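ok trying this again, last paste got cut off
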Amino acid sequence: QVQLVESGGGLVQAGGSLRLSCAASESIFSINVMNWFRQAPGKQREWVATITSADRTTYADSVKARFTISRDNAKNTLDLQMNSLKPEDTAVYYCSAVLRGTRYWGQGTPVTVSS
């Protein structure tokens, strides 16, 4: 069982940047797919970005060209660099990983973007 702990959330003005990080309790080398999701107040959780073990990345249209997902297998971390933030990016951000057929979630880190 892997534990995921997010950090880096906070309050930022529109147009600003934040970098989220997710620390895993064990090696992520064997984890093929890792993701970031987010859940805005009153809305369903939505997918934000994915990175594979081959460093292939995909993004939701709403964040493409503004967000960058990356992973560091040596440090067992997953990051999300968020630039040009908009008020509609306000949400709790969760990292997630699928390992041996089980999806794991972090506890989330809140991001608030003020206009």
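PB: full thing came through this time. DSSP finds no helices and eleven strands in the chain.
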